[in-house]
Amino acid sequence: MSMAQRAVSPYGRASEFFELPVDEAFLERLLRDIFENYWADIVFGPIVEGAAFEFMCDHLPRKIGVWDGYLTVDFGGSHFHLCIGDTKGSPHAPTPPAQRAHRRTSKARFLRGLDPQGNPVTWGLSLSNGAGEQLCSIFFPNPLLTPVGGIAHTPNWQRLRMWEELLARYLGLARDPKDRAARRFFHG
After folding, report:
1. In this structure, are residues 37 and 60 in contact, taking their beta carbons and an 8 Å threshold?
2. In what order do the strands lie in the sheet with 70-74?
């Protein structure tokens, strides 16, 4: 996958990422696809230094829609909003241009976290706002973990299906043998 770019966090954790478009129409299509078709397989939420919110869907979202630049995923009680477009506010309280730029998704990336040998051990999607702050991470099924998050004794490569389907659908990328190189989960 020649489109992959490599990054290393200030703490030495390496990852590879694949840049995605950030226009509202693309992000709405991608997020609808994930939450309508893969809702039972994902773990999602913001991940920041010192906190990880890992939510799972109990059922298909009741409604997904966009209003004033915000995608809302509603589960019929709990819901969340992600700013994926231009948020103008109301005529009586317009959103200032600097705040609009700060809120809006400015980076969308498929990513895979790497172990110290450079083998992928996590797969997902990361969204950041205009200030570079993380909005949300969506973790895809992991072949090195069980469906309930335990360490798998042997990798279940069928659990890469979502990753491979989304890379093919949105980036035109074929299956990468590198995704099957790790033999054990690594958490750095």
Report:
1. no
2. 63-67, 70-74, 79-83
Round to whole Å and give the CA distance between 165 and 161.
6
CA distance readout (Å), 160 to 53, 82, 157, 181: 22, 26, 6, 12
Q: How far apart (Å, rounded) are the C-alpha atoms in residues 153 and 141?
A: 16
User: For 166-186, how does the pLDDT look when each residue is reduced to its tens digit (9 = 90+)?
Assistant: 999 999 999 999 999 998 888
Q: ∠ CA(122), CA(124), CA(130), 5° rounding? A: 125
- pTM value surpassing 0.85: yes
> Nearest 5 degrees, angle CA 40-CA 45-CA 51?
135
Q: Which of 38, 21, 28 is nearest to 138 (CA)?
A: 38
Question: Hey, what domains does the chain have and what are their CATH numbers?
Answer: 5-180 (3.40.1570.10)
Per-residue model confidence as pLDDT tens digits over 51-104: 999 999 999 999 999 999 999 999 998 999 999 999 999 999 999 999 999 999
